[in-house]
């Protein structure tokens, strides 16, 4: 499988970490294909879902990289590969100079101390049968950081307070708390092992808007205070814009554009990015009514059978013959920006 | 790394426990549950009968006499059977084996079956294939046929009966627990536990099993009654525990030719089985409440 994946490799448009620092996390031509099994008795692999298809990306230390795209574009799969919950089909995930696929059991456990996650749904990311003390204390227990129950309890209390919760919630069960409180518990669990890197997989998407703002602020404060690096996966563009230093846009398993947050939002170059941004409603109804919008026609193609050439050509207003036949590489356009589009030269038409 | 993470600062005061302990909670659940109290009381009576059986029984359970098939009276509170043996004494002495077989077989089947189900469901792959093909195979045969076959091959006796009946029930527990595991392992808290570095064993034990208890408890309480009856069926076929030891099932099957003339021969051993099963069901309900923290949160 990996051999086949390598065969169609596009030239790597490696995007360097935007904030000048060395990369903490690096994806090199990452591919993740899920087999689709068919047949009656023995599941033969009849086809593959190409969830992530050749993504190269790097995240600098203390940087927050936003990763956006429609649901099903592969952004969460990238997060799961980074967390070593999925093994890549091809390509590499490099964390602090090491390919995480090659790590043995004890090295993997050491990696787990440094890479943590905050999950989307605060209602299913906490075990309903465990108290907050058990949930937040578990990382400390399994890594032997704090073997004593009393010490774990104290540290769990401190972690709760760090995340803006009262330590008196420590004996609550998840169902006895609100969504925002639960998400803070999830953050406290992620921070228990003092990680360097946190994958926030739709970490605020399931919360009320007012709670979202609080959690985003908490994540920002913690990043500044603890020097964390985030991969912030989301589909709410205004939240991603608020928290990210750089933003990467995905479409159908491919990275289509990476740029600093302000340049991406002010001057999107890839036609898909332009369409995505124009789909964000403007709060002022007068402006909303008269602003120009770029609406993408049609449906997102199936990742089981992605179109040849540029994956976006079936819906792209600018597509021509070249786009239908050749795969555009992610080309640097200067100033930390890279775009995978034949039509988006340095002098691209402003949106 | 900055010095603001917990552990760098001197540890604060210990935080007092904010909720009842497990023992207090168990007591609270049982205290509020009348049916569970009745169940415990009934089982306690049976347990005393089981432990002290021969000492309490008014007659020797195997002593035959000439007053055959007599209705309940002061001399024989539950009547006598076709050989003139005192039914009350036989039921009291039979308690030990019947209860022991019923509870121990389900206990063994539960531990083995749930372990298999957890491994098959969580680890998947070839292990899942092997375990589940075996379970399917066993599913194709009625439990009692399997038990009969095993006892016929390995011989009578208490140990063999328990082993045979336990094995016959393993597949039910494996199937129920595997289906629970398959849905629970996709939960985000399992992914979170893996991200934190929790071992597979601990994930199964602390994250999956506690969330799968309700259907397993239901399966166990149902199985206890079937196990007592399975022992009865084996006894009926002459494959049970030695015939000198009366068991509820044996008494019931001995009674089959006479129930039309002597109603007490069928009613009383049946009542003993029913009361046991009912009590275990009541206790099972209370246990389910105890394990479900959402039910009893206070």
UniProtKB/TrEMBL annotation, chain A:
Main location per the UniProt record: membrane
Domain of life: Bacteria
Membrane protein topology class: Peripheral membrane protein
Record localization: Cell inner membrane
One GO CC term on file: plasma membrane
Keyword terms, alphabetized: ATP-binding, Nucleotide-binding, Transport
Gene Ontology BP annotations: peptide transport; transmembrane transport
Signal peptide, first to last residue: none
PANTHER family tied to this protein: D,D-DIPEPTIDE TRANSPORT ATP-BINDING PROTEIN DDPF-RELATED, TRANSPORT ATP-BINDING PROTEIN
Protein family per UniProt: Belongs to the ABC transporter superfamily.
Protein's UniProt name: Oligopeptide transport system ATP-binding protein
UniProtKB/TrEMBL annotation, chain B:
Gene Ontology cellular-component annotations: plasma membrane
Keyword Isomerase: no
ABC transmembrane type-1 domain mapped to chain residues: 95-284
Name of the molecule in the record: Peptide/nickel transport system permease protein
Subcellular location as annotated: Cell membrane
Family from the record: Belongs to the binding-protein-dependent transport system permease family.
Bilayer disposition of the protein: Multi-pass membrane protein
Pfam families named among the record's database cross-references: BPD_transp_1, OppC_N
Organism, as annotated: Tistlia consotensis USBA 355
GO biological process: peptide transport; protein transport; transmembrane transport
Keyword field: Cell membrane, Membrane, Peptide transport, Protein transport, Transmembrane, Transmembrane helix, Transport
Transmembrane domains' residue ranges: 38-59, 97-124, 144-170, 208-229, 262-284
